[in-house]
Amino acid sequence: MEWSKCIALVTEPHASKWQTASDYVAKIIKTFSQDFGMYEYPKMVAADANDGMEYPMITLDGGADPDFRGLLVHEIGHNWFYGMIGNNETYRAALDEGFTQFLTAWGLRKIDGDTMITTPDKSNYKRVFREPKLAIDRNIYFRYIYDAMRHLDKPLNTHSHDFHNALGHENGYSHVYYKTATMLYNLQYLLGDSLFLNAMNHYVSKWKFAHPYFEDFRQSIIEYTHEDLNYFFDQWLETTKTIDYGITSIRRTEKNNEYKIKLKTLW
Ligand SMILES: [Zn+2]
Hints:
By secondary structure, the chain is of the alpha/beta class. It is built from 9 helices and 6 strands; from the N terminus they run βαβββααααααααββ. The protein has helices at residues 21-36, 69-85, 93-112, 124-129, 135-148, 175-191, 193-207, 214-225, 230-238; strands at residues 5-9, 43-48, 53-55, 58-61, 245-252, 259-265.
């Protein structure tokens, strides 16, 4: 597919705040097509529906620019994993919602930069003193760390029904989003940026429209990187152990007085 039409459908009362929506949709499609494999469908519609829901080629979204950006990135991002890879959200929600949550921070950072663009606070005090919201913290890390520190997260390789409240995002279900996304950013940290992106692209091109499961994802990343990452995936997917890095050595380099730090995992 060479061209995809990007369309925004908006209700009249919200029209003035949706003028940028179709451009933003195009930026999302372009970003994910470049980084994670070409969008395969002829169009993408963002519909102003006071909601957040994904369907192939159409997403229901709410809010207004700039606060709706994260939602647009998320719902459109779904078209890569459940929409093109073809993951089964009921069987393993992490493969769809988690990978899409990973894309949410990825897209926001690529399009808008590390700091989220939001409506300025009305209060002068908050405008001056409130810290900027980092896309990766707000969309991924804070939500994972908050529960992981209290041991409330669950193993990711779990059927949606076994969380016993998938619709309410309770009983650890929210970690199909945040823990999975944290795992993927940790995989990037482990492999380095280019090897990680190439391995993810290998997974996408190998399994596009082929309905893979976690075993297939794990296998395709190991196959591409030639690294035995079973220790990594075992911990993230099957257990509730948390990341714990230890420092094995710190060395000061000649150049610019920089420090080189060597880490090891303490799992
Ligand atoms: Zn979602």
